[in-house]
Design goal:
Number of domains: 2
Number of strands: 10
Strand order of the largest sheet: 8-1-9-10
Protein name: Threonine synthase
Oligomer: single chain
GO molecular function: threonine synthase activity
CATH class of the largest domain: Alpha Beta
Strand content: 5-15%
Largest sheet: 4 strands, mixed
Cofactor: pyridoxal 5'-phosphate
Keywords: Membrane, Pyridoxal phosphate, Transmembrane, Transmembrane helix
Helix content: 40-55%
Radius of gyration: 21 Å
Number of helices: 14
Pfam family, one: THR4_C
CATH topology of the largest domain: Rossmann fold
Structural class: alpha/beta
Length: 343
């Protein structure tokens, strides 16, 4: 997004920040109701239920493709590389909606709070580790709280108690019974950097397919759990060409990137450094909005078009959170299309 020249796109780079820091700032900004209403704050990352809702369509679309090709397949399993638990939560809801889903596999890198919970029943926060799959470098999975609500028997009071205690102690441990219930919903596996690089190399040499580091974590989980079959799908998260430094550690020389992506590397970039502090980020947002409003007011004198608004991207390391409008209309249309086609 740093290459987008539009004046209503603003990239903030949080100094010494991680994904968790950025996510905490965004959540705090939403909890500041006066600020939220002042700037009309909205989110299109998975803080917003609309994002999770839109991702449900992935599972229906994939199920339709697999069962079209393999007529004997009745259930489709999914391995999902995840840090924030958003996309795999969408798979959980797709299954609850009636889609014939087999296993839902939570695939993590070294930042494995989800894997530890699903194997030990311990949701304990640890310091973040920098890995070659940075979009999964997350200590606290925002959407996991949504799943915990269901694990708590849809009891908001129980969930509130869990999360308040977690905020204080950075630890949540569930009973053996609740762990067993969670293990009925999800399998999990963890892939470290060496495992990830080996898999990228093996798949390129043996299948001529270049996995990105995140996707490789998902494929690794399938191998570890021995779920390799035409009825198992790994959700690929990005094109490998976005991560040349990591992928070149496994494959050298790298294949040529798509022309569209290669063109981005030479474009000028724009971003603003921001302190790892809520008030500082809010101040920057107010200033950018004021500047944009001034520009638009000048433009409106020359044109009848009104395009006032803006989108903020916040990054810590290379992770980003987008702040913009929801997309419920497109989501509803997508669900109607896939369900109509299946019928």
């Amino acid at each position: 997004m740093t290459t987008v020249p539009d004046h209503n796109i603003h990239c903030l780079s949080v100094v010494d920040g991680t994904f968790d820091d950025c996510q905490d700032i965004v959540k705090a900004a939403f909890n500041d109701t006066a600020f939220r209403d002042e700037v009309h704050l909205g989110a299109v990352n998975s803080i917003n239920w609309a994002r999770v809702l839109s991702q449900i369509t992935y599972y229906y679309w994939s199920y339709l493709r697999v069962t079209d090709k393999h007529k004997d397949v009745k259930e489709v399993s999914f391995s999902v590389p995840t840090g924030n638990f958003g996309d795999i939560l969408a798979g959980y809801y797709a299954k609850k909606m009636g889609l014939p889903v087999g296993d839902l596999i939570v695939a993590t890198n070294e930042n494995d709070i989800l894997h530890r919970f699903l194997t030990e029943g311990k949701y304990h926060r640890r310091p973040i580790e920098k890995t070659i799959s940075p979009s999964m470098d997350i200590c606290v999975s925002s959407n996991f709280e949504r799943y915990l609500y269901h694990l708590a028997g849809n009891d908001a009071k129980v969930l509130k108690g869990w999360m308040e205690n977690f905020e204080k102690t950075k630890e949540l441990t569930v009973t053996a019974e609740l762990l067993a219930n969670a293990q009925k919903d999800f399998l999990s596996a963890r892939a470290d950097t060496d495992m990830t690089l080996k898999l990228i190399k093996d798949y390129y040499e043996n299948h001529k397919y270049m996995l990105c580091p995140h996707s490789a974590v998902g494929v690794s989980a399938i191998h570890q759990l021995k779920r390799i079959s035409p009825a198992t799908v790994c959700l690929a998260t990005a094109h490998a060409a976005k991560f040349p430094a990591a992928c070149s550690r496994a494959v050298d020389p790298l294949p040529q990137p798509p022309a569209e992506l290669a063109a981005l590397w030479v474009l000028p970039t724009r971003n603003t450094d921001a302190p790892n502090d809520l008030k500082s980020v809010q101040s920057l947002m107010r200033n950018r909005i004021a500047e944009r409003v001034a520009v638009e007011e000048e433009e409106e004198k020359k044109s009848s078009k009104k395009t006032r608004g803006g989108c903020f991207a916040m990054e810590g390391k290379v992770n980003s959170l987008l702040v913009s409008a929801a997309i419920l209309g497109a989501v509803a249309l997508g669900l109607r299309m896939v369900l109509a086609k299946k019928r």
